[in-house]
Amino acid sequence: MAYSEDNPEDMVELERALMRISHLLTRAKQHDQTIVEAGVAVDRASTPLLRVLADAPEPVRLGALADRLAVEAPHVTRQVQRLERAGFVERVPDPDDGRAQRVRITTKGAETVECVRAVGRRQMAAALAGWSDEDRHRLAVLCHRMVDDFLRHADDEGLLGR
User: Fold this and answer.
1) Phi, psi at 70, each rounded to 5°
2) Do 80 and 30 meet the contact criterion of CB atoms below 8 Å apart?
C-alpha cells in the first residue's frame, strides 16, 4: 500500500514492523526452541498467563487475568486449572470477598518464567549484538512509550474491558 493522507508511510511501515515482531514472538517453533533452551515444560498458551502473574505484586482475580490477557474468562479458568495441576500457580482466598479466590504464582512458576525470560534476553542480546548500548536503550524507551500510548488510547476507547 502506498502513502496517502489516511495511511502515512511511517504508519504503514510501523504496522508492518509490529506484525513481523508479533509473528516472530508467537511462532510455535520459537516457543518450542525457547522452552527447550530454558529446560522447562510449559505450553505456549500458558506462558503469557505466567508472565502476568510473575509481574503481579499480589494474587490476581481470574476476571482481572482475563482482562489483562484480553481473553475470555473460561480460557483463563482452564489455563489456571492446568497450571495449578502442574504446580505453577495456586489459588488463595480473596481477602476482599470470602466467596472468591485469587491466583498467585508459585516458586516453581516464578522460576520457570525467569528461565524463559533469561533465554529471551540471551536471544535478543545475540540478535542485537551489533547495536550500541545507546540504540538498545533508546529502542526500549520508545517501545515502552508506544505500548503506554496504545494502552492509554485503548482505555480511552473503552477497549480494555477494565
Assistant:
1) 55, 45
2) no
